[in-house]
Amino acid sequence: MILISLFLVFVKIGLIGFGGGYAILTIIQQELTQRGWIGQQEFADIAAISQITPGPIAVNAATYVGYRIAGFWGSLVATLGVSLPSFVLVILVAHFILKFKESRAVESCMKGIRPVTVAFIASAAIFFALESFVNLQAPLLVNWGPFAIFAGAILVAVFTKINVILIVLMSMVAGLILC
Amino acid sequence: MKKSRAALLWDLFITFFKIGAFTIGGGLAMLPIIEREIVDNKQYISKEEIVDAFAISQSLPGVIAINSAFYIGYRIAGIAGAVVTAIGVILPSFISILAIAILFDTVSGNVYVSKALTGIKAGVAGVIAVTVVRLGKSVIKDWFALILAVLAFAVTTWLDVSIVFIIAAGALAGYLYYQAGRVKRHDTD
């Protein structure tokens, strides 16, 4: 039974997961924490780990949460679930590619969806900030170590061409020293 | 003939397995590597077609890397190609995360692990914040898009509204404003 609901929830995530990586993170977080399938902190941990392991974040989250809830078969079912809508949609679109690309109606809908996915990505940033240095109960008590890492990551990302993965790895090392 | 098809599918699998294994961070980070492997090295499809593949992968819902794997695999070798490329791109992360899930309980209480994770989360918050600004600049081009983004952010953060509803509302608003609005403006011209 749990395998079926796992599968269906991840099919849903695959179906509404617009905007890629970080946007999908917000969607997964909402779907899973509201069901009580994984706690906020544990989700933040696994999402953090996903940044330095191979592969797409959504697949990583599906595999991890599936395993937590129903072992190996859970992880298999969740990963299949999140991929299934892509399979159907991509093959449909590959057949009707010209119509899809040229459809003004589709493009208009996408123009409405894109700003929404930017909002989801902003939400993901806030989620990580809350899990590392902001305390909602005492907003003035910023946790300075992680905050310095946050500010440092922004500066490095804006002013240098250093790769994102390297920034994340540098943050990890800084965490060992500062946190 | 049959043998060469099996060889092609195997080659597709290995190529996408490599792409899955060596791109950390996923999603958009994978696209340049897919392009290098599939277009430049193997010459399976043309540059134009890969541009289509990426555009479609990003506009459809779902994992961008999986979408592009399905699309490229399908174009090169039909349904079997799509299945093989997707399994190839998923397998490395499936295996590594499964290993982490199995080990996580034994290390999650460790103080150094928790320090390292806090550092990563803080850094990732910064990296994502920069992504929001960069992406926002290219996606939010008029007042309407800005209002949509701010509304969507407020609703996701403070209200208990289903994500499905927020996305559907965005699509509908986009359709009404950009499509129906355009038709109407055109009529009055």
Secondary structure elements and their pairing?
The complex is a heterodimer of chains A (179) and B (189).
Chain A (H helix, E strand, L loop, with lengths): L1 H15 L4 H14 L5 H11 L6 H39 L1 H6 L1 H29 L11 H16 L4 H15 L1
Chain B lengths: L1 H21 L7 H12 L5 H13 L4 H44 L3 H29 L3 H16 L4 H26 L1
Helix pairs in contact in B: 1-2, 1-4, 3-4, 6-7
Main sheet specs of chain B: none
Given the structure, what is the number of helices of chain A?
8
**Rg value of chain B:** 21 Å
Unreliable residue runs of chain B: none
| Count of DSSP H/I helices of chain B | 7
Number of domains of chain A: 2
**What sequence of helices (H) and strands (E) makes up the elements of chain B?**
HHHHHHH
Features:
heterodimer, A: 179 residues, mainly alpha, B: 189 residues, 7 helices, 0% strand, flat, CHR_Transporter (chain B), transmembrane helix (chain B), membrane (chain B), chromate transmembrane transporter activity (chain B)
Structure description:
The complex is a heterodimer of chains A (179) and B (189). Chain A has 179 residues and is mostly helical. The model of chain A has no long low-confidence stretch (mean pLDDT 87). The longest helix of chain A has 39 residues, at 57-95. Chain A has eight helices and no strands. Chain A folds into two domains: 2-132, no CATH class; 136-179, no CATH class. With 189 residues, chain B is an all-alpha fold. Chain B has a domain at 1-107. In chain B, 44% of the residues are buried. The mean pLDDT of chain B is 86.
